[in-house]
Amino acid sequence: MEANKENQQSMEQAFNQALDAYKAGNFAEAAGQWLALAEDGCAPAQRALGSLYERGQGVEKNAENAFEWTKKAAEQNDPVAMFNLACYHDKGVGVKKNQQTALTWYRKAAEYGHPEAAALIASLIETGDRGLEKDMDEAVRWYQIAANRGNVLAMGRLAWLYSTGTGVPQAAQGGNAACMMNTAILYARGEGTPHDAHEALYWAEQAKKHGAPQAERLINAIKKNG
Question: Whole-prediction pTM value?
Answer without folding.
Answer: 0.75
